[in-house]
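Justification of computing resources. Each target in the renewal requires a structure prediction run like the one illustrated here; the chain below, 371 residues long, is used simply to show the kind of job we budget for.
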Amino acid sequence: MIMMRQKTIFIFILFTLIHVPVKCQEWPVFRGKSDLAGKMDTELPSSPNLLWKISTDSRTKSSPVVSNGIIFFGNDKGTLFAINNDGSVNWKFDTGSSIEAPPLVHSGIIFVGSSDGIMRAVDKEGKLLWTFPTENQISGSANAWSAGKRSGLVFGSYDYFLYCVEPLTGKLIWKVETENYINGAPSISNNKIVFGGCDGILRIVDPLTGSERDTINVGVYIASSPALYDQKIFFGDYDGNLYCYDLFSGDLVWKRPAGETSGSILSIPAASYNSIAVGNDDKYLYCYDSVSGKLMWRYRTNGRITGSAAISAGKVIFGSMDGYIYILRLSDGRKLWSFNTGAPIGSSPAVVDGKFYFLTEDGRLLAFGSK
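Resulting structure tokens:
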């Protein structure tokens, strides 16, 4: 009898552990994790409320990241903001050049690139640690890898190079030359760095040496970043084609050709289990089966979708240039909630502890959650 009771208690505890929503404490990199797949470990609130908002008095194309309760982002004036989780300003750092790229927080340091082509490292108090100059603008977020005692900060530039530098010093480790602008952020998973560019080539690079392990030539501008999920690479191109490649073999798994009315894919696919959600310039958010590439559903907004969606347990969240934030049911695309921000949204959300944050293009940071 005692053994049966102990077994029952164990099963109850196990069931409770499995079904308690996991809270995501950090969103330190654009898209949440270094694979850029936009999959959340926390559930979205069922009826979100606007908790607070703050204006930066300047337009922004950046996206927020969150670390230790501080929200970081940049604006067109070149100011890097650190905002407390109550909406108050912790500190500001002026770069003197427009910040389009989302920041990265790694090892307690904030890294941000700007249109003057400089990557800057700022400490948690807002003081400059080092700078690394490139020959043209930096539009995509940096990312970071670690292998044993070694680590690297990787980012692309419009000078046709992908750079890897030491995070603590900014010293160059290696660089990879491409044939055109690198607009997006590199994604990292399974000891591989994957990135595309306006030369239409997706490159798979060794993080330790910078040597190219594989190249995939699609022949069309790749304006955004790939998402790495379940040993697959998901990305779109400027013509509106969507691809799925095997991360290890480099083989094409499926391709979803652009339709007659399709626009460019400027957003990064969000990946979760058997679903891929991606926005399009044609104003639709599309959801595909990740195994077959079959279209599951699409949802039309009244504006272009240039920001990237994120996926939680059964929900997908994204913003549109029509000024609305949407939460849809992942299984069928039914709208569960929307909010009119009053300004176009080209940013991607940051989701932490049941709260989420969006930037509007007129320079406001909005925080949502349950009151």
